[in-house]
Design a protein that fits this description.
InterPro entries: Dimeric_a/b-barrel, YCII
Radius of gyration: 16 Å
Strand content: 35-45%
Largest sheet: 4 strands, antiparallel
Number of strands: 6
Family: Belongs to the YciI family.
Distance between the termini: 12 Å
Protein name: YCII-related domain-containing protein
Mean pLDDT: 93
Length: 116
């Protein structure tokens, strides 16, 4: 099963060097094992654009635009056997954050892809 991990934080922060190194090692291991298919960190919303449909109209707004309460800071895509394994890998990833930046409050959504 394919899963997407979405990292969400109320306050955007950059990982410190120790956390970056721990994440790099974890990613190398997961890629080598064939479980991690893709990953990336996102630039702030001010660097992007928003394409929206509202009131049956399509609009495009370049950043910066109204800030959301929460910010998506990164993602990863894994191929795993089941939700239990996906959650366990999410816990391992978040433990790195707790170990290296314990004051950073964030969440990791673990969501399966819809099978077509």
């Amino acid at each position: 099963m394919r899963f997407m991990y979405v990292l969400v934080a109320e306050k955007p922060m950059l990982p410190n060097p120790a956390l970056r190194e721990a994440i790099r090692k974890l990613a190398e291991r997961e890629i080598a094992a064939g479980r991690m298919l893709d990953t990336g960190a996102l630039l702030p919303r001010t660097a992007g654009a928003e394409v929206r449909i509202k009131d049956r109209k399509l609009t495009v707004t370049d950043g910066p635009f109204m800030e959301a309460k929460e910010v998506v800071g990164g993602y990863a895509i894994f191929e795993l056997k089941d939700k239990e394994e996906a959650v366990a890998r999410g816990v391992e990833f978040m433990q790195l954050h707790l170990d290296h930046m314990p004051d950073w409050e964030l969440s990791c959504e673990v969501r399966p892809f819809m099978e077509c």
